[in-house]
Design goal:
This protein is α/β, with parallel strands linked by helices and 305 residues long. It folds into 2 domains: 159 residues, NAD(P)-binding Rossmann-like Domain (Rossmann fold, 3-Layer(aba) Sandwich), CATH 3.40.50; 125 residues, Orthogonal Bundle (N-(1-d-carboxylethyl)-l-norvaline Dehydrogenase, domain 2). It is built from 13 helices and 8 strands. The strands form 2 sheets. A 5-stranded parallel sheet has the order 2-1-3-4-5, with helices on both faces. A 3-stranded mixed sheet has the order 6-7-8. Helix 11 runs antiparallel to helix 12. The longest helix has 29 residues. The radius of gyration is 20 Å and the shape is globular. It starts with 5 loop residues before the first strand and ends in a 12-residue tail after the last helix. The structure holds nicotinamide-adenine-dinucleotide. The site of nicotinamide-adenine-dinucleotide (NAD) has 26 residues, from helix 4, helix 6 and helix 11.
Length: 305
């Protein structure tokens, strides 16, 4: 791998756009590509070099970085991309995907003589903009060693979690905590409103007390206490509810496979599935509070709360 490798970056959505922006600003040789015309337009406006197609992005590339919605997108891009990469090239998948797809992608990379790392992230769009994401790495030691300096301009922390798909395992467990904790925070604010307690008063107490958590202090679901949270911006994501529902589906699938009881994770999944089913999938996942204020899911038998 050269000191300044050519990086094909695929997937320029809410996360990919600021991530590739950090890489480009740090002097990396990037070629950004997305299947969406709007995403390509946004990245061009930001001054990041683009490619007109996936194959153009991959021409002579040493590294492929993917930041895509789900496992099927990653598998499909890899099927097209891997034959175009030279032996020893590195694939870093930063998407949050299921364990089976992650393992399949690692196996396919290995069979072609490519290095591969699963490297899902935590920290949201704010962390992506600031270059302070936590990366959770899974893969062989050599691949992880090559990936580290490439990820550095986007990272606050890089944690090696273990072998292939260990990063995804860490991400799935982390996001199960996040989904559950966001619902808890939303329920607390919805209750506080009915009890005549101001948003700021609850925030001032809970953010310094035992109710403290990231969903409250970094992503507060009501406008005011945390000015940068999506609640101040009409619940524009941020992290879309559809992606949270996807991640909670991944944790439940993993729990079922492993025979582990995760009743709160199952309930969180069901609530986010309801929210998405009622048309809230494109809103930030903190919009759960609006869903709860409106009565939440219908109770068995059809009656709303
Ligand atoms: P997003 O939907 O905003 O962006 C995904 C992008 O991938 C879109 O622009 C889409 O056009 C593009 N895409 C899909 N298929 C493609 C293909 N075949 N070729 C090229 N481009 C393609 O999603 P996001 O919020 O940026 O999240 C990306 C991943 O990161 C997801 O797996 C998500 O779970 C994870 N994640 C998101 C956040 C967050 O706060 N948004 C935080 C941590 C992790």
């Amino acid at each position: 791998m050269t000191a300044n490798p050519i990086i094909a970056f695929v997937g320029l959505g809410n996360m990919g756009r600021p991530m590739v922006g950090r890489l480009s600003a740090a002097g990396a040789q990037v070629r950004a590509f997305d299947a969406s015309t709007a995403a390509m337009e946004a990245i061009r406006t930001a001054g990041v070099p683009t490619a007109g197609s996936l194959s153009e992005a991959l021409e002579g590339a040493d590294v492929l970085i993917t930041m895509l919605p789900a496992g099927r997108h990653v598998v499909s891009v890899c099927e097209e991309a891997y034959p175009r990469l030279g032996v020893g090239a590195l694939h870093i998948d930063c998407s949050s995907i299921d364990i089976a797809s992650a393992k399949a992608v690692h196996a396919s990379a290995g069979a072609r003589g490519l290095l591969s790392v699963d490297a899902p992230v935590s920290g949201g769009t704010g962390g992506a903009e600031a270059g302070t994401l936590t990366f959770m790495l899974g893969g062989e030691a050599r691949a992880v060693e090559v990936a580290r300096p490439i990820l550095q301009p986007m990272a606050g922390r890089i944690v090696q979690c273990g072998e292939a798909a260990a990063g995804q395992a860490a991400k799935i467990c982390n996001n199960m905590i996040l989904g559950i904790s966001m619902i808890g925070v939303c329920e607390a604010f919805a209750l506080a409103e009915k009890l005549g307690l101001s948003h700021q008063a609850l925030f001032d107490v809970a953010s310094k007390s035992s109710g403290q958590c990231w969903s409250l202090t970094s992503y507060c679901p009501v406008p005011g206490p945390v000015p940068a949270s999506p609640a101040n911006n009409g619940y524009k994501p941020g992290f879309a509810s559809a992606l949270m529902a996807k991640d909670l589906g991944l944790s439940q699938a993993a729990a079922d496979d492993a025979g582990v009881s995760t009743p709160m994770g199952a309930l969180a999944r069901s609530l986010y599935d309801h929210l998405v089913g009622e048309g809230g999938g494109d809103q930030d996942f903190s919009a759960m509070i609006e869903f709860l204020r409106a009565g939440g899911p219908a109770r068995p038998g059809g009656a709303a709360r």
